[in-house]
Amino acid sequence: MQKSKVYSVSQVSKLVGVSVRTLHHYDHIKLLRPARKMDNGYRYYNQSHLILLQQILIYRALDFTLEEIRSLLNAESSDLFSQLEKQKQVLNERQQSIANMINSVEVTMTNLKAKKNHEILFGDIPKEKVERWGTLEKERLGSENIEKKMAVLAQFDHEIMHKLKEESTEISDDFAKTIGQTFDNPIVQEITAKHYQLMNKISCVVHGENSQVSSEQYVAMANSVDNKEMEELCEFYGQGYAEHARGAMLYYAKKNLNAK
Amino acid sequence: MQKSKVYSVSQVSKLVGVSVRTLHHYDHIKLLRPARKMDNGYRYYNQSHLILLQQILIYRALDFTLEEIRSLLNAESSDLFSQLEKQKQVLNERQQSIANMINSVEVTMTNLKAKKNHEILFGDIPKEKVERWGTLEKERLGSENIEKKMAVLAQFDHEIMHKLKEESTEISDDFAKTIGQTFDNPIVQEITAKHYQLMNKISCVVHGENSQVSSEQYVAMANSVDNKEMEELCEFYGQGYAEHARGAMLYYAKKNLNAK
DNA sequence: TCTCAAGTATAACGTAACGTTAGGGTCAAG
DNA sequence: CTTGACCCTAACGTTACGTTATACTTGAGA
Question: Yes or no: is domain B157-260 CATH 1.10.490?
Answer without folding.
Answer: yes
